[in-house]
Amino acid sequence: MSKHVAPFTTRWIDPREGTASTSEDPLAIDGFDHIEIYADSAKQSAYYLSHAFGFAPVAYRGPETGWRESVSILLKQGDACILITSPLKMTSYIASFVHAHSFSPRDVAFTVPHCEAAYYEAMKRGATSASPPTEWKDEHGSIVHAAIKTYGHTIHSFVERKNYKGLYWPGFIPYKQLFPRTSTIKEAGIKVIDHVVGNVELGKMNEWVAFYERILGFSQLTHFSDKDISTEYSALMSKVMNGGKGKIKLPINEPAEGKRKSQIEEYLDFHGGPGVQHIAFQTDDIITVVRTLREHDVQFLHVPKTYYDEIPSRVGSIKEDLAIIRELGILVDRDEDGYLLQIFTKPLEDRPTLFFEIIQREGSTGFGKGNFKALFEAIEREQAERGNL
After folding, report:
1. What is the pTM of this model?
2. What is the DSSP letter of 79?
3. Strand partners, 241
4. Rounded CA gap, 274 and 201, in Å?
5. Are 59 and 99 in a shared domain?
6. What is the residue range of 51's domain?
7. Which of 133, 180, 336, 385 could anchor a disulfide with 146, C-beta 3.0 to 4.6 Å?
8. CATH number of the domain bearing residue 136
9. How far apart (Å, rounded) are the C-alpha atoms in residues 240 and 166?
10. Cβ within 8 Å of residue 143, ≥6 positions away
11. Distances 282 to 128, 191, 273 between C-alpha atoms, Å
12. In this predicted model, what pLDDT tens digit does every residue of 62-94 receive, in sequence order?
């Protein structure tokens, strides 16, 4: 037996044990817990996200730890946690997911004060179960986990951590315990997950908006019509769902009719249905982050230099040097609360599906409405190069 085996136990929690919540709101959410991405190879994907984006490999689970179903590597930067999982058996669900969707988020997980209360309240409101409440336990305490289904093959996990003092999860070991020669990763400056965007089919956006309102008690933060997000050729519509007292923001996009194929239709075609389109990471210093990522050969969408001619009149004064913003291709927008800076990577893999956003908020709570046209045109140029516009 490997010396790296991490002993733990799991126990399905019988609903008769009681589900009384310690919170007045059974659906209370403390924030994003992690995002789990299914991939062909956890080790290769972790290497890329580490060396390109500055995520440090923190914890590991796989055959060497006694886990025979998959390999999982937890990556962390600031408070942002990404879990990369790959299949060990080609007959597994993980393998079928990867075959269908390739490198794609499976789980957008929430930290909750009481997992059972959240799960059973969501089920009472009409949710479909992905996993019943289960206790994971080791010498460091216990985690309670459950999950419900949402759009496509995406799920939302409820993770209760208040009784766990370990590294990440029972059954995981420190990454460097197994790979001691792993180089220390220098963080790029990412602090936290800001929002997660989902793409759904034409005519399905309002259905999922209603799902988040009814099942999870979310509210609609804002709405962008096809007039807000359009070019000469294509358009999309988006509604932003807000939960966890503002800690969770989940925009939902659907395509709108246009002369040519929109970015949402391209995503749906290549992803094989609805799923997470992009993950936005918040930073306090986007200039440093973007400089670092460019040094690591991360590719970003190109914005024409003419975009920056209108920034002084459209956005007004900002503390950052506009010449540097222009040089790095960072977008800027302002609303009634302040301004924001944002930039979008190109797709992270061969399929034009998942990408990342880096965002710095200087008071603004919006999503860069003033940048939509420039961003959409940049995406369309990439689509045209791929022959998909």
Report:
1. 0.92
2. T
3. 220, 250
4. 7
5. yes
6. 9-178
7. 133
8. 3.10.180.10
9. 34
10. 135, 136, 137, 159, 160, 161, 163, 164, 169, 170
11. 31, 6, 27
12. 999 999 999 999 999 999 999 999 999 999 999
